[in-house]
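Case study: Glutathione S-transferase N-terminal domain-containing protein.
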Amino acid sequence: MKLYYLPGACSFVPHTALEWIGKPYEAEAVNRDKIKSPEYLALNPQGAVPLLVDGDFALSQNIAILTYLDNLHPEAKLFGSNTAQDKAKAMRWLSFFNSDVHKAFTPFFRLPPYAQGNEALTAEIRQNAADNVLRMLEIANDHLEHHAFFGERLCVTDVYLYTMLGWAKRVGLDVSHLTHFKSFIERVEADKGVDAVRVQEGLK
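Here is what the predicted structure looks like once written out:
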C-alpha cells in the first residue's frame, strides 16, 4: 500500500491513519509538478493529494480513503469507535472539515483567474475567506469547550482539524481568541503516530 502526499497538506490525515494501523506501507512525497504529470493524472485525474494505491487499486479523496482504510482495519478504530452512532458523529465533523472548512481556505492558496494581478480584489477575497474560515473554526472551538476530541478518542477527524490549524498559522490567521485550540493541538501532537508523520513530512 502506497500513499502519495504533499507535506502539510490534507494528505497528512491518511498518512497518520496508516501509522495508526501499524502495517507496512510506503509514503512518497510529491510536488506540484509531480501531481500534474501524465503518470500521476492517470491514477488521479484531479491532480491532487492524497492518492492511495493498493495493488492495482487507486483511490483519491480523503473521505473515501479513510473509509476504505477503516473497513480494512476496523481494529484501528480510525474514527475513534466502531459503533454506528459514534462513527457517524465523527464522520459528520470530518465532512464539515473536509467539505466546508477546507474549501474556505482555497483563496489563500489559489486565487480565481479574474483576481490574479488585482491587489485590491485579492485582498477583498482573502479577507472574506478569513472571515469565513474563522467563523467555522469558532464552531469547532465551541465543541472543544466540552470535549477533548471530535470522536470518542483521538481520531482522523481531529487530525484533519489539526492540519488546517497549521494552514491557519501558515497564512497568518489569528486564532488566539479561539482559546480551546492550544490544548487541542498539544493533545494531538502528543500522539506517537502524529509525531511520526510530522517527522516524516519535515514538519517538526
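For the exam, be able to explain this: The chain has nine helices and four strands.
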